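Troubleshooting log. The previous structure file for this entry was overwritten by mistake, so regenerating from the original sequence record. Sequence copied from the archived sheet and checked twice against the printout by T.R.
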Amino acid sequence: MKEHIIFDKIELYEKAVETRPISLLPNLLLLSYVALGKQYEKLASYSEQFLMSNPRINILVEDFIMLSNLATNQQSFADISFRNIHSLDPEEPYSHLLRLITESSPEDFMETKIFLGNNHKELADLFNNVEITAPYNLYRIPEVIGLKDNIISKIRKTLEETPANPILRVSLAEALLKTNQVEEAQKEIDTVISIYPNYTRALHIKAKLYQDYLEEEAKGIEIYKKIFELNPVSPYLKGIEVVFLSEDESIMVSELKTIFRHDNPFVLYFKENFKKKENEQKTETSKKEKAVKEEPINKKKNIEIIEEPELSPLDEGYKHLYQGNHKKAIESFLKDLKKK
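Regenerated output below.
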């Protein structure tokens, strides 16, 4: 996005937020453009102002706070932001993506690939070679579950080892629902939501349960309203928000979705800074390799410049004697006698 457009949009939505300080969509649009303009001090200030003046939780605003902490080199605060977001929604993709800048274990890559899904083709080169292994392969359930898949038994067995894993618990609820075990699915999903009331995937499964299995459409819509309040660009909405948005809100949602589709501030920040981190690691590795290669040379130089201690004429004489050089030995002994 061109710089002048970003700054014009910042000015536009700053004015909009002045008149509607707790309105969700103008604030999210403002934060998105401020992040694209790399005005990170402003990003932190505007994000915190919104959260302090608004009783509602919004996960995207929490993401923007994490981004501003990383961008202003406040790593400890960024870690706190990640833990906070994880306690709200364990699968929130952008917090996991940003975390890869500082924490990039194979497990981190697997989780991030799963949570991002297929929504970010611009990151395909980074994640194409990431193989999803157990138990992470149980974090997503196929659309159709065959009798021979044994997915439910696999999840239950894994949960015996990690009973507090909410992601596996949601996968279990989803698998139970897809195999028409509705009562068990409801019990599992209600357990998760009682602990994680803002977990968007869990809320989505609860909404599907109401709409597709219990024929309670209105209850499902109420849950999607909550998902929208938590994250208006959530992939779980799939356009259902048009049912409950005004025309003005629909226009702003369309603008927000366009930003996240083409100029996603989290993806752009990640790509720029993850590449920088890779380059720094390559430079550090190169320095270490160079030091290892030069080490024997330096040791050799050190050996060459070591000076032997000066010997007395008597000791020098014995040295020559042991070496079989009798002439020099006699000269050294005579020198010693003269000294005395």
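Residues 58 and 330 are 96 Å apart (CA to CA). Archived copy saved in two places this time.
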